[in-house]
Amino acid sequence: MQTYTVAIVGATGAVGAKILDKLIERKFPFRSVKLLASSRSAGTVIQAGGRLFTIEEAKPESFDGVDFAFFSAGGAISENLASEATRWGTVVIDNTSAFRMDAEVPLVVPEVNPKALDSHNGLIANPNCSTIQMVVALNPIKEAFGLKKILVSTYQAVSGAGADAILELKSQSGQFDSRAENSASQLPSAGAERHYPIAFNAIPQIDSFDDMGYTKEEWKMINETKKIFNDSTIAVSATCVRLPVVTGHSESVYVEIEKEGITAEEFSRAISKAPGVIVQDNPATQTYPMPLFAENKDDVYVGRIRKDPDHPRGFHLWIVADNLLKGAALNSVQIAEQLLKNRDAQNN
Amino acid sequence: MQTYTVAIVGATGAVGAKILDKLIERKFPFRSVKLLASSRSAGTVIQAGGRLFTIEEAKPESFDGVDFAFFSAGGAISENLASEATRWGTVVIDNTSAFRMDAEVPLVVPEVNPKALDSHNGLIANPNCSTIQMVVALNPIKEAFGLKKILVSTYQAVSGAGADAILELKSQSGQFDSRAENSASQLPSAGAERHYPIAFNAIPQIDSFDDMGYTKEEWKMINETKKIFNDSTIAVSATCVRLPVVTGHSESVYVEIEKEGITAEEFSRAISKAPGVIVQDNPATQTYPMPLFAENKDDVYVGRIRKDPDHPRGFHLWIVADNLLKGAALNSVQIAEQLLKNRDAQNN
């Protein structure tokens, strides 16, 4: 069997560490893994899958001989180093937003648009976490019934804002009585002008605002969904909200389908056939997805499937997934696996 | 000035206590207040506004001589005692769901449909907390531009599930590391078959389910909105979710208006003129409503006002209010105040 040299840029971050875990767990055919990070972390030893890995400083020449490089160290690092990597012939799978809307760069969720990988210039983008879980759940609906409109309100976990945001939630959560006066420095984002406590709160801002009053997170959901579905005629709009949840994004999604006369049961059955999706939907037993129980799970969970009482083509669903796994690390590794499948198919 | 005898049924509950506070704070012209509760609480002394009040057991004859009775002790108590009270000539303002959809019973938010009070049989219903804040914010939109469709996803606080739910959130919040195993007995509701931890979670169930897969809370929002707006042609649908927030419900609301060509600025200006509403909406300064800062406030806060990029008559807004005040106690007292205004108007 052919084996590959793999690099992870941003190996000290939460997503980088989970990419390494998934490569080992899913038996990706690597012969070696280079863990790359800033010079500050160089020399640090990391244990994963019973083996030890030493962090090296990420440099342009780090990619010599690397077949696949996973980038998850922020948009600026990707902008600086990804083209250096591709120059060495490395295929870059980038988890930042740097290249996602670049027309030359495929934006891929393997269950949804694997064919987008057929042509690329060495650079493949992994979509935003909140987009991935939504398109995985909605793709079978689009294929079976057509999608006219998507409206989503998110309930997003703090782990999407980094490890320090998790620590801040933990600390504030112990200070119940002073909850409105708790000090805050991490949310809506560490770099924001103003910070608000997240414990016992809901912050309707993820990333920065544009002139229309939308946040970048909301535009990611709007634009990435249209690109992944390769259909700019689907109407998409979004409201993104950060919650005191550690890991696991939830989404209240409303869709208008094209086909007439579809029942909630037919809608549900279409979703249940989708790869990577588990329907958890039984009101009689209070069965529905919740973020607390999606942590560390690979699948996308869907429940609360219902028909709009006032619109014959309107449906609700509630979509939950681990934002660090299917929303980031797992999807990135699945992209690499899909590339190998495509190569095998070409070679046969 | 004429003065009145007032009773509060369920005076030991969170909403009952706040009704007493609001009667005192707003100088409701009472000459005496009877605090009524179950026999278990009879004799308990409560302090409010520098005065002492002794709880009495609620009985059919408790209402002799009572002008206004506020009921907030659960639907079963209202069903048993409200008609007894009206038989004594008492006007009942009921905060439970027992009579809200009764065609004979006005369902009133004074800023929205005060005229509904013109005819009643002694019984007036206070709407559900999540409905009140939404209709207060949307009423000026309905009046200025017409409303075709409302889609709401809620972010609701645990105080709506009672004092024990607040204590459970506090206790679980201190147990960060065991979050998925924390014991739970209060949510989605104390009487539910299965319970889930609320800390670090989002539970997409408030109240029990019907055959269509909707919860009672969702139907309350759908049906009460149409009744208060006195317009069954407005399409309404809802998804209701409980969050680890103490007090303060938030709502991500999407509306389609009837009028063409309205800008987000015009939409916002219409809302800002509404009584009881404060627009907090400035992306440049990260100004938007948050539940943590709405606790103990009377007003309904609105922000994140935006136009749907893909629908010329679609708008988003984010509505936050204290669910125990405008959502319950304050609105109940405002109903009584409105009844007095109407009497004054008739007498002049």
Automatic annotation (TrEMBL), chains A, B:
GO molecular function: aspartate-semialdehyde dehydrogenase activity
Keyword Oxidoreductase found: yes
Stored InterPro entries: Asp-semialdehyde_DH_CS (IPR000319), Asp_semialdehyde_DH (IPR012080), Asp_semialdehyde_DH_beta (IPR005986), NAD(P)-bd_dom_sf (IPR036291), Semialdehyde_DH_NAD-bd (IPR000534), Semialdhyde_DH_dimer_dom (IPR012280)
NADP listed as a keyword: yes
Pathway assigned in UniProt: Amino-acid biosynthesis; L-threonine biosynthesis; L-threonine from L-aspartate: step 2/5; Amino-acid biosynthesis; L-lysine biosynthesis via DAP pathway; (S)-tetrahydrodipicolinate from L-aspartate: step 2/4; Amino-acid biosynthesis; L-methionine biosynthesis via de novo pathway; L-homoserine from L-aspartate: step 2/3
Catalytic reaction annotation: L-aspartate 4-semialdehyde + phosphate + NADP(+) = 4-phospho-L-aspartate + NADPH + H(+)
EC number: 1.2.1.11
Listed transmembrane segments: none
Class of the enzyme per the UniProt entry, highest EC level: oxidoreductase
Active site: residue positions: 129 (acyl-thioester intermediate), 249 (proton acceptor)
Record-listed phosphate binding positions: 100
PROSITE patterns assigned: ASD (PS01103)
Chain positions recorded as NADP(+) binding sites: 12-15, 40-41, 159-160, 323
Highest taxon, organism lineage: Bacteria
Record: residues binding substrate: 156, 242
Domain Semialdehyde dehydrogenase NAD-binding: 5-120
HAMAP family: ASADH
Known partners and oligomeric status: Homodimer.
Family: Belongs to the aspartate-semialdehyde dehydrogenase family.
Main function: Catalyzes the NADPH-dependent formation of L-aspartate-semialdehyde (L-ASA) by the reductive dephosphorylation of L-aspartyl-4-phosphate.
Protein known as: Aspartate-semialdehyde dehydrogenase
Gene name, Swiss-Prot/TrEMBL: asd
